[in-house]
Write a structure and sequence with these properties.
Helix content: 10-25%
Largest sheet: 6 strands, parallel
Structural class: alpha/beta
Number of strands: 8
CATH topology of the domain at 7-45 and 88-167: Rossmann fold
Oligomer: single chain
Order of helices and strands: EHEHEEHEEEEH
Distance between the termini: 43 Å
Radius of gyration: 18 Å
Length: about 180
């Protein structure tokens, strides 16, 4: 049994910038040479295939899992039917090996997180007030953080450095050309 990869979450209220931050962090960590997986929690039913496609028809016919495989990618869809939503750990355990897993959402899970805040959408109280696993705040304004480190929401390199330090990530096994150290 392999050791699970380190997890770091991005959380926040609706329209706080979570998806934008996660996608930019994935790009940054990948540029640095890390293999990154991601998990996104959705609060609603969703489809990743289109009505009328073969995979949709298989799922609608009652298949519990449908794998779609091509030379470019594969996807696995699992219908819960009347089963409970799986725990995040169960989903992470199904992922391929990675250096880091970035998690979007999952406010109530017990992993380190950064809270996103946008001034335009700040209607609710900060999540960090009641979640000890929030270790920093990324905001587009001078947000009060209760002593937590604060980053500009668009300072992706600094946020990535913070996450790498928090998780004590080792140097990536593979270096990309633009992430390799410069020599004189």
């Amino acid at each position: 049994m392999s050791t699970p990869p380190p997890l770091f979450g991005v959380t926040g209220w609706k329209n706080s910038g979570k998806t934008t931050l996660v996608t930019r962090l994935i790009t940054e960590f990948t540029r640095r040479g890390y293999r990154v997986n991601s998990v996104k929690h959705a609060h609603h039913a969703f489809d990743i295939d289109v009505p009328g496609t073969d995979s949709f028809r298989h799922r609608e016919a009652g298949a519990s899992e449908v794998a779609v495989v091509s030379g470019a990618r594969w996807a696995l869809m699992h219908e819960l039917r009347d089963d409970d939503e799986p725990a995040m750990a169960d989903i992470v355990g199904r992922l391929s090996p990675a250096d880091l897993v970035l998690v979007e959402g999952y406010k109530r899970e017990n992993h380190p997180k950064i809270e996103c805040r946008r001034e335009a959408t700040m209607r609710d109280r900060p999540l960090s007030a009641s979640d000890l696993m929030i270790v920093a705040v990324a905001a587009d304004f001078e947000a009060e953080t209760g002593g937590l480190p604060r980053f500009a929401l668009d300072d992706i390199a600094a946020i990535a450095d913070f996450i790498a330090a928090q998780l004590a990530l080792p140097a990536p096994a593979r270096q990309t050309a633009d992430a390799a150290p410069q020599t004189a």
